[in-house]
Amino acid sequence: MKVLGIDPGLGITGYAVIERLDGKIRLLEAGVIRGKSKKTLPERIHEIYVGLEEIVNQFKPDVMGLEELYSFYKRPRTAILMGHARGAIILAAANAGIPVHSFSATRIKKVVTGNGQASKAQMQRAIMREFNLPEIPKPPDVADALGIALTCLYLIKSKSQSLKDILNNIGNREQIIK
């Protein structure tokens, strides 16, 4: 089973593709799709869609994990803009026939670190350990996407396998990790 984890963003969308094969989990690739901040909103949404379409066509994931939308009362515009990015991501998945499962940030952090309130740095360190990476994944969006992919894999497929069973394989797509 291949899982594509997505940490949505207009400027940086993190992605990670992991695979469970013969009971072992391996990292196929992780990186970011970067949007150009000087482009219009439709152009930025299109960049996300096209970048994700390339990843989907290359890896043919069976399922996609996506971070749920959240917002703060003081920043409703951020939530609206993130909704646009999520829409492009969900459309790419729907066009490819990939089921999408959404998870809250606290759920993802709880699965990966054991603490639903973990910091970005804690997530990065936990992902580095889980995948036996030589260094902390940067930007943090990559670690988040890996956490989303792991959460999706564990919660929709099997609750019996431990995070300690993860194998390592390293590379990259901007390429950050492969």
Written account of the structure:
With 178 residues, the chain is of the alpha/beta class. It has a single domain, classed as Ribonuclease H-like superfamily/Ribonuclease H (Nucleotidyltransferase, domain 5, 2-Layer Sandwich), CATH 3.30.420. 43% of the residues lie in helices and 20% in strands. The chain contains five helices and five strands. The chain has a five-stranded mixed sheet. α1 packs parallel to α2 (76-96), α3 packs across α5 (140-156) and α4 (120-130) crosses α5 (140-156). It is globular and about 40 Å long.
In short:
With 178 residues, this protein is α/β, with parallel strands linked by helices.
Give the CATH topology.
Nucleotidyltransferase, domain 5
CATH superfamily placement:
Ribonuclease H-like superfamily/Ribonuclease H
Q: Rough shape? A: globular
Helix content: 40-55%
The CATH class is identified as Alpha Beta
The figure for the number of domains is: 1
Widest sheet: strand order? Answer: 3-2-1-4-5
Unreliable stretches covering 5 or more consecutive residues: 158-175
CATH architecture: 2-Layer Sandwich
Percentage beta strand: 15-25%
Record field, number of beta strands: 5
- Look at the structure and give the mean pLDDT: 86
Radius of gyration: 15 Å
Please outline the major beta sheet.
5 strands, mixed
Order of helices and strands: EEEHEHEHHH
N- and C-termini, Cα separation: 17 Å
Q: Total number of helical segments?
A: 5
